[in-house]
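Format notes (please read before filing issues)

Several people have asked whether sequences and C-alpha cells are stored in separate files. They are not. Every record keeps both together, in the order shown below: the sequence lines, then the C-alpha cell lines. Line labels are part of the format and must not be stripped during preprocessing.
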Amino acid sequence: MNTATDRLANVMNDIRAAETEHSRPTGSVTLIAVSKTFDAEAIRPALVAGHRVFGENRVQEAMGKWPGLREEFDGIELHLIGPLQSNKAKEAVQTFDVIHTVDRPKIAKALKTEMDKQGRDLPCFIQVNTGEEPQKAGIAPKDVDAFIKDCKENIGLAIVGLMCIPPVDEAPGEHFALLEKIAARNGLSQISMGMSSDYQTAVGFGATHVRVGSAIFGSRDYT
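Then the structure lines:
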C-alpha cells in the first residue's frame, strides 16, 4: 500500500542514504514536507508518523489549517517557502517559525517591524535567483552579498541561510553549487534547496533543508 506515510518513510530513507553517500553526518539534512494545497486530513498521517517540519507557500492557506493541527500535535515547525507580500508580514510572523523567501529590502523591513511588535525573532533565509529568471523571485547572485550585509547590519534580521529554486530546464547541480559557494563566503551555515525531483542531488551539494511535497503527498490539484 502506497500511502503518504509510506512515501514519507521512503523520502527519509533516501535522504539518510544520500547523507552517507556524500559523507554528511546522519541527520544533518532536515526534510521540510511541503503541504501546500493539501488539507489537514491529508497532512495528519505524516504528523501521526512523527514528522513535525512542514512548508507552506501561502500565508492565508496556512492560517486556515495549521492552528487546529498545532492544537492537536506538539512541536510543529512551519516554514514559509513561497513568496511573501509586505502586507502579509504580520500574519506571516504570527503563523510561521522560519521564513525562506526574503528577497527584497521592503520585505526584510516589514518582517523585522512585525517581529519586533510580536516579540518573535524568526530565522530567515534569503532567496537567491540563481538562474536570474525574470519571472522568478529572488536576489540576483551578484547582489546577494550586499543584501545579506544590509539585512544583518542595518535591518537586523536573523539571516541564517540561503534558498534557491533552479530553472526547471537546467541541471540543478550547477545552481546548488553556486548557492553553496555564496553561503560559504558569507558564513551562512544553512542552505535550503532541493525538491521532489532533485533532493538527493541537493544533499550532495550541502543542502541542510530539502523541500519535498509531491513525493510525499502525491500530485496536487490546483483547481
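For reference, the curators noted about this record: The beta strands are 30-34, 53-56, 77-80, 98-102, 123-128, 158-164, 190-192, 209-212. The chain has a mean pLDDT of 96.
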